[in-house]
């Protein structure tokens, strides 16, 4: 059973197909409105989430399907000590596809190894968040018209920022991209991401602590939040939390066509004043995320044979 | 120093000097009820010094453990006093329950029944990573 745990589980050809389907959904939403009639998405969120869970749910509703979910981890059997493996074995009996978020790294892989239906990783600790990256890729494609030949600055918490790890992995596969990794020393990108995504492939990158100096060379500035929930030490969090704040004044250093992205939620790392700047794309990412989750669920459900022979008009085959 | 030859059993030879005790421990040889000899710092033409382990029974051995600790070691299966099989070790692609993930954020810290599985990420650097959280093995 195919599941998506890491963005690298998808080939660049499959990413292109998902983008193409998402663009078709944007242009022809009615065509997709009943593709998942009678199918159920289970959202298992063991960690607080608003936008990712609601995005998955909205995506399934817009495909005509249904959503079942647990109210919170505190009210679930996980609170009684049930393992992730057992939980997904049970949920596999109720639903057709699972979206899971869990604070522990690797939990989504454990779920995928034990479920009998497709599993989508909606974020596992600081490890991976592939559907956020799908949102990012569609946003970059729509805003820049390409996925290669770009200088991508990622800024903030690059150590625990799972969206950053997935984005670097994904964008390092497109030709001509280079990276500027902007973070405090304590929150640099982990060695394994640098080694496997950049060093071994000979992708140009540099690490810096200076956001202002990097701004003029960037095509994309990807801001991230310093995440309190990833720190074991509150003092360390308080010391680092305001390391980078993007203001309207700072945006003057950027090129006219640089876009600003952020996986949201933000705290104070992007001033509200920047929202009115036409280069700010973070709310577009939210919308794009829903379309890409629709495309991804269609792909996995089709591969699982769930879209065959169920539709009333035989129109449930998606061209991927 | 001499240790009698064994008639039926296993000889783990060409162990890099100093690594014999680690292999002895990871293979759980201390809990066997057969004769086991760990010979350290034996003179070797090829290695200068080497360790040797002799087990006086043909027990199941996890070759992945030996390959992980010392890929240059060799394993000889002795039957009726003769070498029946000679195996050269190599770094295993997957290591299961040999080393533990030390990342406190890894799912293996809370789900106790999970096996600790590492994949070979870089053979040149002999680098293993947890399949769940990607943390490098120490």
Question: Could you explain how this protein is built, in words?
Answer:
- The complex is a heterodimer of chains A (320) and B (138).
- By secondary structure, chain A is an alpha/beta fold.
- Chain A contains 11 helices and 9 strands.
- Chain A has helices spanning 12-27, 29-32, 51-62, 84-91, 107-114, 130-144, 162-171, 191-199, 211-214, 234-240, 282-303, and strands spanning 40-45, 66-69, 97-102, 119-124, 151-155, 178-182, 205-208, 220-223, 259-261.
- In chain A, strand 1 (40-45), helix 3 and strand 2 (66-69) form a beta-alpha-beta unit.
- In chain A, helix 1 (12-27) crosses helix 11 (282-303).
- Chain A is globular.
- Chain B has 138 residues and is mostly beta strands.
- Helix content of chain B is 10%, strand content 37%.
- Chain B is built from 2 helices and 8 strands, in the order E-H-E-E-H-E-E-E-E-E.
- The interface between A and B is medium-sized, with 21 and 21 residues.
